[in-house]
Amino acid sequence: MRWWLAAATGTRGAEGAHLPKGGTLVRACYPQGGVGDDQRREADCHALLVAHLQELEVPRWWKRRIARKKGFPEVGQNRSLRRLGAPSPAEADTGPPKTLATHSHTKPLQMSRTSPILSMPLVKRGQSSCLAVIVHGWSGNAERMQHIRRSVEEKLPDADIFLPEYHAGIFSNTDPLRVARALEDELRHLANTRSQRADGRRYEQIILIGFSIGALIVRQMYLFGRGVGERATSHDIRAALDPADWVKIPVRLVLLAGMNRGWELEPRPEHMTTAVYLKFRLGMLLSAATRTGKLIGSARRGAPFVADQRVRWARLQARGDSFPLEVYQLLGEIDDLVSQEDQTDLFMTPDFIFIPVVETNHRQILLHDDSPFGRRRKEVFEEVLTLPKEELLERYGDEHERIKARESRPSEKHAVFVLHGIRDSGRWVHLLADSFRRSFPGLAVRTAKYAYFPMGAFLVLGSRQRNVRWFMDQYTEEVARCPDGQISFVGHSNGTYILARALDRYRSVDVHRVVFAGSVVPRRYPWGQRVQEGRVSAIQNYIADRDWVVAIFPRLFELIGEITPFKRIGDIGSAGFHGFMDPIANERQYVVRGEHSGALVPENHDPIMRFIATGDVIPPAAGIAVKDVDPRVDLLSRLCWVVWSFLAVLAIGGGYLLTTTVAAATGTSIAPWAIAYVLLLWLFLQTV
Q1: Distance between CA atoms of 656 and 631, rounded to whole angstroms?
Q2: Angstrom distance (rounded) from CA 246 to CA 316
Q3: pTM score, two decimals?
């Protein structure tokens, strides 16, 4: 029983740095060597297998195979394996946490069965007046941070060093929020128990050092320490917070090539080579096919972990609390993942300094070798560790101010996003924006456009989510520049879906006033809940009486989500034709004459603008207002499944007749012509 668990999990690592191989994992359940009765032994091994299969970097079908071969087939059916961080009944507390022994001068690791942490060694040094926390990045481990550790040891001889390690393989599914929460809990424990040593002293300074995605983790640790939880809304941050004691100690955040805005491949980063770019592309394809790589995916630009953190950071700094915090970003001048312009939210921190490092790419920031540039990297890092803020600002202030000036723009108290939909070049967006600027010059109008979005891409869930991430990146940039301002929203078609999904997936998002036209959001969308949470002030919805696009196409997905277990399919709907069911949205819901863009005609600009700018509710003009939707389109909507079936039969039957005719005329097999027809049909859907 003892040998198979490590073989099943495939956990790598050396004693004291990672979870050990072999039977040590199971012996972790029984550190004294006794295994208890058979029932207890089986229950513990069952729970531990569930926990570590969650972290295993292989597809879910492979996890099921492992569980079946090891005699626990029910583990393979555990739904918690489908997503990280969802404990199952088998993961409930069945005993005390297990202890994995580390080397003699480190603190033993207390690990729960679902912990993403591999090891948390604390090395006590000198007078222990300072605590340095070093967090590695993606595809890294503690060993890759050894140059950083040695520099800390040399320059801070009285600093305790806390060098944790978590599951961060290339295809790791580790949740960085869980890593940050576990590390912050441990940091809180270390800070609180420091005074229990013989000298009775406390830490005088805490230094948090994070590389790449580790920089995001240490920032999240600080947010947790300030009392900002993973489900905190902007309204919660503006209210009273309950900070931990350790954030009241002087804290210095040292970010090494920190992915503050997240990473993105489109457009390709300026200094990224073709080989690295192709490797990332291949990795993304493999991750999508195997449903792995969630760790690096969580650091993508606009992803919830990144966007929520940036919004919360900016809102928190806008409070103006006097906590002793200094933040330093060391970024290579030829970094191939992070841009110098990605620091907008950090400039909100009063004591933030941006420090460029010459001739250094993303990974080289950790390399303190004997080359001239390696010695310079070490010198800069040691300066950040030891010099006071004033001296660092004197040395690097010019470059800091240059980047800050390039990213700064006037601060507006009220901004509005105007967002187009599918199959739309956005002409109406510019007309409405011009009307806004003429009528309300004090209102900032944001008309950022995403790429042309055809119907075929709209019908694919993953394609829709890409635009949500894009919008969230734009939203976080706006909040970072004016964290105490208000943001309103005008959206059409897919633009309405983008905001609704952002409100669902990102707890930090709030909008002041919302106008929807041609909405593809489900009718049952919980606007009342969003208003109650303080994340939406008011919404106005326009329905076009002949909007056959919304009435037929998204309506089928909405029906599937309502009457089948496949709820995710129903994340689009027909509120742009049938209206919302929530009373909050019904208060300001109007029917206008026209098709999909009927509400966006110039005659209706004034009611839209006044509602956004002042909150005044003005019904549509008499020339475009109607009482109800067209009954013919309404009938088609009710029979949307018939329309879809007809189109499917037409596409399949027409393709069959066409391919068989061509194959017979040319005397060739039907297979290549069928493949060509499917490709042509897909290309057609990607362009219309």
Answers
A1: 35
A2: 17
A3: 0.81
